Amino acid sequence: MRVYQWEELSEEQQKVVRIAKEQVERSYCPYSHFHVGAAALLSNGEIIRGCNQENAAYPSGLCAERSALFAAGAQYPEAAVEKLAIACFTGGHFTEEPGAPCGGCRQVMLESEHRYGGKMEILLYGEKETYVFESAADLLPLIFVKENLLG
Q: Is the dihedral of CA 136, 142, 144, 147 positive or negative?
């Protein structure tokens, strides 16, 4: 993991993070009031947006990361995700420290990397600093992939 101040991020990284920050406004979170936005930069240059969607039947909701990754796979199944930015907003402001993806989202990120055979840079935005990971595998040690199912 690398830690960056905003001005140290590349223009491309800043663009993807900005879009993730914009997505918190589209979040539907009447229960937790914890808004999460995500943006996935694809190998074809497209940026797919996602945000968390809660539901009174809690397991029926969906995290921002997964909504972006699943939309990317549905709209552009041939394009790898090169960068995934995540921003969290609560109490009227973005979180000071970066928010971390849940275990389910980490597994989906990892599956996306394996699907396309490359690394996905993960950017976790916080007002104080942004954490940058070279790969989803950095967030999920002892990975579980399709080869594990073969016995």
A: positive
Express each pLDDT in 36-73 by its tens digit: 999 999 999 999 999 999 999 988 999 999 999 999 99
25 catalytic residue (yes or no): no
Among candidate residues 81, 67, 143, the one with its CA nearest the CA of residue 113:
81
pLDDT of residue 58: 87
Q: Which listed residue (22, 46, 65, 96) is catalytic?
A: 65
Distances from the Cα of 82 to the Cα of 95, 102, 106, 109, 148, angstroms? 24, 20, 15, 11, 25
Q: What is the CATH number of the domain that holds 74?
A: 3.40.140.10
Please give the residue that has the higher pLDDT: either 142 or 53: 53
**Domain count for the chain:** 1
* Domain that includes residue 32, residue range: 2-150
Between 53-57, 87-91, 111-115, 140-144, the lowest mean confidence (pLDDT) is in 140-144
DSSP strands (E only) in 9-127: 35-42, 47-51, 81-90, 93-94, 121-125
User: What are 130's strand-pairing partners?
Assistant: 4, 125
